[in-house]
Amino acid sequence: MDTFYSPDPARERALLVGVSSSPELNRTTVEEYLDELAFLADTAGADVEATIIQERAVKDPAWLIGRGKVEEISHIVKGGEIDLVVFDDDLSPVQARNLEKVLECKVLDRTELILQIFALRAKSAQAKMQVELAQLEYLLPRLTRMWTHLSKQKGGIGTKGPGETQIETDRRLVRKRISQLKKKLDGVMLQHATQTSDRRGTPRVALVGYTNAGKSTLMNRLCPSAEAYAENRLFATLDTRTRRLELKINKTVLLSDTVGFIRKLPHHLVECFRSTLDEVLQADFLLHVIDISHPGYEDQMQVVRRTLEEIGVKHNHIIEVFNKIDAVEDPAVLRGLREKYPDAVFVSAVRGLNVQALKDAVSDFVGRDYRERSLRTHVSNYKLIGYLYDHAEVLEKRYVDEDVILRYRAHVNSLQRIDARVKSFGHEEQHVA
Fold it and tell me: Of the candidates 414, 371, 412, 362, which has an alpha carbon nearest to the alpha carbon of residue 391?
């Protein structure tokens, strides 16, 4: 059992529990999971005092872990060292109820801890509704335990639930609230689609990646006016933030920062944050930000890929961005990765290293969807000429008698509007091979 101490008495003291079932889930992997769980606990406001791993081939349906290990944890808790016990695996309602009864302290699982962090991080009305919906759907089968739990709450982790007024409600009222939240979120999505309808002509790029990979820092580096919240904490960003990124003259993309992914991301959160993740689905391509300094970055890459598949991303329009290269001491590691991922971009968002190379890569990627056109019109048709200069990249201008011939290039998303404007002036465009 590894022990950690903190001098801050105001924070709750937590004990973390993991279960290893070799060879499917070996002890080393469980230790890595618990390291991440410790980061989650710290983000939620607790100091990890101890971790316990039990080797167990079959999980106990009543306790998850063995009864002997439960007694060991109970001894530690009643010794006054622990306020909170957090399990890395999801607990069934029966397991949670049995454990709380014996341990006589708050017992959370990984999903409930993540829900708590989301509740603390949610700032916008939409994010708060999404978190409340996820909490209610998760807690619906656990109502009996939850009401007892909240009636004795003293604050701290696990107590920022949908609200104390829910204590006396029954399942019918909770289901009614869930239905109301879903309708409200559908309305928010419809309103958002209306407000952003004018963006359809502009290529869209979304930042995705494991939580704390540096997406918000990179967003601020690419778009200094973004003012995206960046902190060395998990899930620092819940609300999607979109800004214009100017690449070249009349070559602009809309860059969106999105919520980070994590191993064992609760299914309720994936479903409830689908309106936020729509930015990922609607993006023309993605920037997959990877924390190269993390020892488990390859596993994190796989988690992100699986999550993208789960939410419905079916294309391979992805640029892999290896971040925090300044934290890698061995140059051979970077050389090996550049050989393995020749199309990836290696940056340091904090120090601004290779950010221009990333912009160039984005510009080249966007350029794949640009098409060339040519147009001949009278030189006095300044409105149409001005429109093309404003909405396309004019490559060449030639004069023939009193006419001007413009060769221009525009993104496929913009061509429909440009074609309509050109035809409104009685012209036909000529496609350039």
Answer: 414
